[in-house]
Write a structure and sequence with these properties.
It contains three helices and five strands. The chain is α+β, with helices and mostly antiparallel strands and about 110 residues long. It has a single domain, classed as HIT family, subunit A. The protein has a five-stranded antiparallel beta sheet with strand order 1-2-3-5-4, covered by helices on one side. The longest helix is centred in the middle third of the chain and has 17 residues. The protein binds adenosine monophosphate. The site of adenosine monophosphate has 12 residues, from loops.
């Protein structure tokens, strides 16, 4: 399993990020290349390379990530709506091999995503 990646370095505070939320299980920080007025990444501190690597042991963690996303959306003023995205592997557009949920909002988002 890949254990060295840029998001893990952010978790370990080895490289800086604009942190929006942190607890013992997860970290949320603003994306360096925002695709919407609000673009936050929510990640587990545990290394899970892709969505496809999730196991039964991650059930509670996944629920936690979603609840953190909902709380952050409210705190960041996304009362009119938002989108959660998880890109998985190459064809899904994943570029960092550490599971992350994109929280996007602050404008009308198009569908289909392309
Ligand atoms: P994905 O393409 O789903 O793997 O998303 C990776 C996201 O991480 C992209 O939106 C990048 O802009 C973002 N990203 C990459 N490096 C950093 C970093 N050091 N700090 C914040 N966001 C980053």
């Amino acid at each position: 399993m890949m254990t060295d990646n840029i998001f893990l370095k952010i978790v370990e505070k080895k490289i800086p990020a604009r942190i929006a939320y942190e607890d013992e299980r997860c970290l949320a920080f603003h994306d360096v290349n925002p695709q919407a007025p609000t673009h936050v990444l929510i990640i587990p501190k545990k290394v899970i390379p892709t969505h496809a690597d999730l196991t039964d042991a991650d059930r509670d963690l996944l629920g936690h990530l979603h609840l953190v996303a909902a709380k952050l959306a409210e705190q960041l003023g996304l009362q009119d709506g938002y989108r959660l995205v998880v890109n998985c592997k190459e064809q899904g557009g994943q570029t960092v091999p550490h599971l992350h949920m994109h929280l996007l909002g602050g404008r009308s988002l198009h569908w289909p995503p392309g």
